[in-house]
Structure formats: C-alpha cells, structure tokens
Write a structure and sequence with these properties.
Elements: H1 2-20, E1 39-43, E2 46-50, E3 57-59, E4 66-72, E5 76-83, E6 86-93, E7 102-110, E8 125-128, E9 133-141, E10 146-154, E11 160-164, E12 167-169, E13 172-173, H2 180-183, E14 198-200, E15 204-207, E16 210-213, E17 230-240, E18 246-255, E19 259-267, E20 273-276, E21 286-288, E22 294-299, E23 318-323, E24 329-333, E25 337-340
Antiparallel strand pairs: 1-2, 1-25, 2-3, 4-5, 5-6, 6-7, 8-9, 9-10, 10-11, 12-13, 14-15, 15-16, 17-18, 18-19, 19-20, 21-22, 22-23, 23-24
Length: 346
Amino acid sequence: MKNLSLILTLALACFMLGCNQQKTPKAAPLPADIADYDMVMLDNGQLNFYNTNTGVMTPLEAEKDSVVNACFEPDIVYYCVAKDNHILLRCIDLKQSNPQPKELGDWGVPYDDCVTETYGEVSPLEYYRGRNTLGLYHNFSWDGYWFNQQKLYDLETGEIADWTWEWEEAGQVSDDDEQTEENYHYISTADELQEYLQQIENRYYFIDGDTVCLTDQMDFTPYISDPEYASDIEFEYVSSSLDNLKVLYMVILEWGDFPHGILAVSSTDGKFQLPIEDTDCTGFNAQWLDDGSLVYVGEEPLSPDDPDAENHYHYRPHCIKRIHPDGHTEIIAHCGEFLMKNSVVH
C-alpha cells in the first residue's frame, strides 16, 4: 500500500507540474494566398499583411522582435528589427509554402543612430531596384533635418557599403556630389504626366487643350493654423490615379522651416474636389490602388465635444484610411504606417 500511495503521489505531482508549465503558443502560419496580399502595415512593432481587395489582415506571428521599418517587393518583404540597440535586417519570402523570417545580417550601426532627433522617426528602409540594393539612413544632422549617412546592403553579395554626403543648406544636397542623383531620393512629378498635365497659375490645369479649375469648390482658410506664417496658397502635384482620372496634390498654406498645409484630391474634370483635412504636406504617406481608391495615413477622428475637434493641427493618434472613388472614406487600420507592394525608390 505504501508503494502504491507513493506512486500515486508522484503521478499527481507530475500532472500538476505539467499543468503549471507555460507552453509557448505556436505562431499561426500565413494563409496560402499570402502572395495576393498587396500591403504591409506596421503597428507598434507588429508586421501585418493586408489584402486591399478582401479587407483581410494577417499578422506575421512568427516574428517575435519589434519591426521598425519595411519595404515590399513583389514576392519578398524586407524589414528591420530593433534588438539590444542593434538594427537587424530580415526578410520573408512569400513564394515559400510556409514562409518564415530569415536573418540577413546586422547593419553595423546602433538603432539609436537611425532615429531622427526631430520627431523620433525611424529611418525608412529603401529598395533600389536597379542595383538590387537596400538602403538604411543613419547619423541625423540638424543641417538638413535628416540623416547624412546611409548603409547600402547588396542583396547579391551580402556586403554592406557606406555612403556619406554633406548638406549644403537645410533640405538641399550639394550639386558637387556626383552620387547625389544616383543615391538620393527626391519626390518629383512623374515624367509621363508632364505633357498630359501642365500646371499654370497654381489653380488651373491644361487637360487635352481645355483649362479646368481643380480647386474652386474648396475653402482652405479653415486649415491655416497661424495667420502670422500664412502665405499665398501654392499647389504642388504629387501623383495621379492609375487611370489618370484623379490628381493628388499638396496645398501649401504656411511656411516655417518646412511648408505646411494639407493634401487634396480632384478629378481631372474638376467636378470632384476633396480636401484631406487630417494630413500635413510636410510629411505624408499616400498611395493609389488599382480601383482608383487612395490609401493614406490620417488621424483618428475626435468627438465633436472635444475642445480640439476644430483644430486641424492638433495631434491625434494615426490611422490608415481609404478614400473610395465616390469620395466615401473609411478607416481600415488603427496604426500609422503602411507600404504597398512594389513601393521602391529606383
């Protein structure tokens, strides 16, 4: 009886020990149609895949470290994680049957060196298609309000090269630097639209020989935060929808260290005009989808009772919104960063 009692006691102890042990849950595999997902989002270090056609979002549960940036090629997502003040490069190949994160290497710079001293933004990860190279900025400089060094990762050899430039003045790169045009990313008007869409007198566009006003139905004065810095309204083209039926542009209302204002969308016949009030043209992320929708990073709406509800420059939590072709706007994610597939620099 004593032996039986001892055996039962040991068995019970083993059972209780097994119940108390914490088991690490397995990461859910990515869905079989993950290659059809055309957007990735970053939400507090979590990388999420999003299908703009179905509205389905799937997190990359297999990645346990904090993701700080990413770029999305047709079949591969490259991204960086922060770990012990290191910034590590990883990727996930969506062509694989059960894609898993793959380590590519350490960038060799501290994570803190890749964060701006202005707004605490992490350097973007940029893909240069012509050279099959990834770029990561570092070493913030107050001369240009941006980084003045870049690490370049060769995806064929795995080698990392360094590149440095000097700021001539705030926001400008020296014309003497022969590498400027090859390496520095500028936002500029698409060449193929230069002849189709010509801006004159800020407010009008020539389209197929006709003069059309794109802004006469909008009042921009509510979006001026400080009349002391207000200037004559300026407009700057950003991009057009894939069918060339709508135009996205900046509405510059004030000047400080940078231009400030909002984004706006108009149809090229001038009949549809929409100010995007929860944006700032100093820094923005907006992308056209195949169906003519515009996805952009905006701000969470405030209650009408909130004292800051009418202050268009009051900081609010970021969210990702989608403006449908008919003008209907919806929130598709409560986070502040996204990338579309094929969003490359060169």
